[in-house]
Amino acid sequence: MDKRIKQAATERDESASSMESQHDQTRQIANQLFNSLLEEKKKLMELKGETAKYHSVYTMLNTVDGSVKKYFIVPNGLGGTEEDGVTLLSEKTPLAKNLLGKITGNEFEINGQKLRIKKIEENI
Fold it and tell me: Which residues contact 95 (CB under 8 A, 6 or more apart)?
């Protein structure tokens, strides 16, 4: 991405200015591309920072029916799917909010289900 940003900046800087050519819009288009790429890079860096704080897979035991599920907390908007037997859980969900800060063996009830943290795999 950095390479493409530098390329867009070079194209912008080397194109004709509005004083040099009234009809050439190359500079304007290159500047829009440059600004768009900078904005996308900013968004990616923010997302990278958000995902860095989530690094644990929680194995949960439903103490009522004995079922076991694995969860990985992700930034809001990225949850709801399952990968390799691990459910991606949005950070804004009640379950995710209950999991953060808990340790193995902690129990809590959510939506009528009694859950126990069976295992926490860190630094995934």
Answer: 71, 89, 110
The CATH number of 53-121 is 3.10.50.30
Tokens of 96: 């995710």
Per residue in 76-96, pLDDT tens?
Answer: 888 889 989 999 989 899 999
Looking at the DSSP bridge assignments, the partners of residue 114 are 109
Q: In the chain, which stretches have pLDDT less than 70?
A: 12, 15-24, 47-53, 123-124
pTM: 0.56
Residue range(s) occupied by CATH 3.10.50.30 in the chain: 53-121
Which burial class, exposed, middle or buried, applies to 111 when counting CB atoms under 10 A from its CB (0-12, 13-18, 19+)?
Answer: exposed
Mean pLDDT of the chain: 81
